[in-house]
Amino acid sequence: MNLTAGASRTDLTPFWGVELAGWGYYLERKWQTVHDNLHATALVIDNEETRLAIVSVDLMVVDEAFTASVRERVASETELEPNAILIAATHTHNAPSAGGYLGVGEDNELYTQWAIEQTATAIIQADRSREPVSVATASTRLAGQTFNRTRENGSVDPTLTTLRINRINGNPLAFVVNFQAHPTVAAKLRPFAVSRDVPGDVCDVIEAAHPDALALYLQGSAGDVNFHRTFSTPERCREPGCLTAGLALAAQGNSTLIENPTLGFRSETVTLPTRRWTRQEIDKDRDEAQRRLREIDVDGWQDTIGKVMTNNPEEMIARHGGDEWLAVRAMCRFNLAWTFEILKDWETRPETLKTEVQVIQIGELAIVANGSEFFSSLALDVRNRLGLDHLMIVGYANGRIGYLPDAHDIAARSYAAYQSPKYCLQFPFTNASGPTMCDAMVKLVRSLDSRQ
Questions:
Q1: Where are the domains of the chain?
Q2: Based on the number of CB atoms within 10 Å of its own CB, is 315 exposed (0-12), middle (13-18) or buried (19 or more)?
Q3: Beta partners for 148?
Q4: Is residue 132 classed exposed, middle or buried when 0-12, 13-18 and 19+ CB atoms within 10 A define those classes?
Q5: Distance (Å, whole) CA 232 – CA 91
Q6: Spatial CA neighbour of 36 closest among 183, 254, 245, 209
Q7: Distance between CA 116 and CA 214 in Å, rounded?
């Protein structure tokens, strides 16, 4: 079998007036400057029997409609099957979202439609530019650069996995890098600037070392993990990207090329258990919001609505220009909005959530993806159960279901467990939700990988 691959990149930098996503409620964070351009970067691999596509988009999230539209567009122009296409957002907070969250960055319909076309174009161009290649996979550990933001000494996944695609002359065509940490370094420094944040720095360093190659960053299980806050300074902000890229390049220096890897893909829908919001929970948020707005009341908000709605109440005030009332008013507006929307089908909606799990195999590398902000403890469970030398766990892929927390955060009624489902307009996850996702991921990888 002849192995071929192609890589291509298109621009996703938003036009004037588009909001950047995340970072607070009703900030209307329309970008003011472009620090670095956003991209859709695609890789297509074919071995005459199976054809796969991986595309990394510098967006905060992509939803199921975005994914379906890109896949349909690509399938109409190529021989790629829709379920053979993996679409992963890097989750930069200095970019728009495609299928956004309620109140934390309005989804611009015109921009989203353009981003769909640009993403599809990157895949189509990659497919049409395929040439003979070989591949190499390497895995290592990047320790000490991240921390678990939900609990002291909590788990993090330090695994750094890379895929290199080489032309027949030995020069690289493309690199794929998978690591896991919230890319919010640039957001703290330049909240109104368009930027790829750390994922962009990783790609830039790799491409500077190999000017004829393109690099893709696949975000991992970053739901409860950040880069250390000490990196959020003008002097140190590029360190995480440089360290990640340097270690990825060093790991690939010791890898072994595989000329005819097995290619495969599989996709399934998993049904995750959720629980219905209680009427008391809904009424509590709505009633407090109405009272505070009526009385223009900021007393004690950090111990009530602020306790769950933000990880850092003081930062929320700063993001609203230092005006405490503006911050409180925005959170009250959100609580009125989510309670109004959820009550439309609150009594009839099933207590489950259906979402996609996808696996792609490239030789000894398995890539398993879902649409959640996946927690570290769950990712480590998947790694331990599969025991693979080279495994990429990709979040923010093919859809968006918000944070998928573990039992610790569900018991704590944390931001991830209790607030995320509100801006996703979902029911909260249960203690069984994470394990159900892990089971589905493990089962799907084993169904495709002959080594399992």
A1: 4-267+355-448, 279-342
A2: middle
A3: 225
A4: middle
A5: 17
A6: 183
A7: 20
DSSP string, 433-452: HHHHHHHHHHHHHHHH-TT-
If we measure between CA atoms, which residue out of 19, 41, 130 comes closest to residue 87?
41
In SS3 terms, 111-122 reads as HHHHHHHHHHHH
What is the dihedral sign for C-alpha 197, 402, 119, 117? negative
One digit per residue, the tens of pLDDT, for the chain of length 452 reads: 799 999 999 999 999 999 999 888 999 899 999 999 999 999 999 999 999 999 999 999 999 999 999 999 999 999 999 999 999 999 999 999 998 789 988 789 999 999 999 999 999 999 999 999 999 999 999 999 999 999 999 999 999 999 999 999 999 999 999 999 999 998 889 999 999 999 999 999 999 999 999 999 999 999 999 999 999 999 999 999 999 999 999 999 888 777 679 999 999 999 999 999 999 999 999 999 999 999 999 999 999 998 888 878 888 899 999 999 999 999 999 999 999 999 999 999 999 999 999 999 999 999 999 999 999 999 999 999 999 999 999 999 999 999 999 999 999 999 999 999 999 999 999 999 999 999 999 999 999 875 55
Compute φ and ψ for 381, nearest 5 degrees.
-60, -45
Structure tokens at 305: 């609505």
Residue 296 and residue 208: Cα distance in Å, rounded?
A: 53
pTM over 0.85: yes
Q: Per-residue DSSP letters for 126-157?
A: HHHT-EEEEEEEEEEE--SSEEETTSTT----
**Residue pointed to by tokens 């750390």:** 198
